Amino acid sequence: MTKGDKMRASFKQMCFSDNLVNMVVAPDALSAKIAERTGFKAIFQAGYATAASKLAQPDRGIADFGLMSDSAREIINAVNIPVFIDADTGYGDEQNIERLVHVYENMGAAGLFIEDQTWPKRCGHMNGKSIVSEDVMVNKLKAAVNAREHDDFLIMSRTDAYAVSGLNEAIKRTQHYHEAGADLVFIEAPKTKKDMQVVADSFPDVPVMANMIENGKTPLMTNKEIHEMGFSIAIHPNVLIYTQTFAAERLLKDMVNLGTTKNQMDKMVTFPEFNDFIGLDDINDIEQKYATTPINL
Fold first, then answer.
1. pLDDT tens, 28-39?
2. Are 8 and 148 in contact (CB under 8 A)?
3. What is d(CA 34, CA 4) in angstroms, rounded to the nearest whole number?
4. What phi and psi, each to the nearest 5 degrees, are found at residue 158?
5. Which of 37, 48, 50, 46 is CA-nearest to residue 79?
6. Rounded to an integer, what is the distance from CA 58 to the centroid of its chain?
7. d(CA 216, CA 124)
8. Where are the transmembrane segments (predicted)?
9. Domains of the chain in sequence order
10. Backbone dihedral region for residue 193 (phi beyond 0: left; psi -120 to 50: alpha; all else: beta)
11. Is 0.85 topped by the overall pTM?
């Protein structure tokens, strides 16, 4: 069984268990490794954080399939826990979706979601969204399901219809998306806890995801509250990119103003600690094992 097979089987078991799947979005491989080391059992790779981390750009359809898949590969290679993928709108028609499913399966992803926004899409908590017809999205999902080669590779539907056409339309679409083969479902950006409860109640037998964005459109809740509502998956997409920006800006301001980092040392890991974290000793061991001449470490 390959690493990908193990991760897919593990993620599927999580999603269809009675426990909440708690995921944080990793902007890059280092963040993913930190998430794994601190106890997360699965992580997410998503467009908002990738566009910010790789391009310093907003989530407005700027991060294309090439960039997203390269970032996903780096993250998957860095960890041994399942990685779920934000595949945006599928980056084209059904042929494009067939290709991306094969690419993500082959690199070991646990699954992906496809959304019904028009391209260029935007973050689900931004204004000005528009959506494709329900039939277009149903065909995309059918293409994704038909393309996969592993039953454990999970397909999630995402709809942004709540912002465009209201809660009832979002639920109706999601029901049809599930009927088209979506294993997991996601209605983006409900504005009230009452509406979130309606979403969860509408899919009692399907794993449903809740998206927690700080200062976003959806009320920020604890994982316990989310699970008690009936959601199976909680995602925290921006907390790492926001925290990294906050911390880096504060430190760099001190460097500009004070010319030193001495007063920030308690906010950093040390040189030896970081080298240990990223596996320097393992690399050195390999080098020593295969080196043709002795190496002084």
1. 999 999 999 999
2. no
3. 20
4. -125, 135
5. 37
6. 16
7. 9
8. none
9. 3-244 (3.20.20.60), 263-297 (no CATH)
10. alpha
11. yes
